[in-house]
Design goal:
11 helices; elongated; 11 strands; 4-stranded mixed β-sheet; 467 residues; alpha/beta
Amino acid sequence: MFCCRLCLLQIGCTEDGILNGIEATVYNNCGWCNNDNALGMALDHIDNAYYVPNWLVTPKACKTNIAANTATRSPGTCPGIFIMEGMIDQVARTLGLDPDTVRRANLYKKDQVTPIDIPLTYCNISTLWDDLYSSAEVESRKAAAAKFNEENRWRKRGLSVVPVRFWMEWGWAVPYTVHINIYAADGTVAICHGGVEVGQGINTKVAQVAAKTLGIPLDTISVKPSNTLIGPNDITTGGSITSELCCLGTLRACNELNERISPVRAANPKATWKELVAACNDQGVNLSVENFVEEKTDYQYSYNAYGVGCTEVEIDVLTGELQILRVDILYDCGDSINPDIDVGQVEGAFTMGLGYWLTEKLIFDQDSGQLLTHNTWEYKPPASKDIPIDFRIALLRDAPNPIGILGTKGVGEPPLCLSCSALFAIKRAIENFRAEIKADTVFTLDGPATVEITQQDCLVDPSEFYF
């Protein structure tokens, strides 16, 4: 994934932590080629969920001796949002305020405009924050963590809450083709669409939309692999938009089929689906249809997805080992087509982000730039023991998206950006121990916060090892 770093920072704010302006320079390590750099997406999302009336951000693409980057889940947006959360964290520490208080005070409100001129005509981030804060019992858990820290010398707990605003950009005419065939012999339906099933459930959602629109059982439908004969000019699968747009193409294609079938259905009101399809075929009705999705809106973005995550961790000060005790996430998925899939997407995205922020450290040869952590002996993606012990995911109820397809919202990438809450929770735990040993100085906790880094940042003094 892309690496961005913030330098040369100035923040203007009131004594209450209300942000007035930010001036920053953001550097991106592009490797030997800056063709794939994160700066565009990082800067587009650098404000995250916070209103700041004045911005001056200077991007710097840096050419280095390591391999070039490539995009993966939430490219650029993940480090961009983290940069903003780091700034909020620093403001809170400088002013002696609770970071949650500063975050809540600066959240976007309805009809405010982002730095890249996105009007927030529908903005519910404050409601999500308050709802999660209540359902996750954040205040009482903070008090419990403080009590635990007082009673335990070498184990410390920390808790952090982070919001996300992630804008979906299918407004710049992204093309996907959907082709549907109905087979007259048995009434089965085959669909080929321009997206690629990579575990996000796109085939299931497309089949659901077709089944509902045509009024037939789900097991009548099969989704075939994508191919360039059906969709020669389809765009990449990504951006958390492909499922939505392929569902839109399926909806339109099925509606066109319904229009063709309608006269035959009217003449045969008691016919089964199989009989109806056979009758259509006998009368020369074309049972193949193609829909080319190329949506355009007045803005490049289409809508915003919102979410809030709360992470509680416990660290071993002596070893740096970590347990993620509990994670609560409330995500606005609109009117979900398949809540089971979408909850799984939230879980998977967040867990993938835990690897980015906690375990997946890349080490390069300083002279040649060669990657040294090239297998799982040195490179550690998250495994079963890295998953939160208590993992609570909720989708916001009764919140259909008026702009989305069938009222839904994308879900593939935004929850990953909430995973930085684990890093800030670790920082809270480290800060508690450092305050206890009278070493509470300002420090930066960069990701990934590995076991070694966490232990070293605790500044443990061996002279304290006594009974």
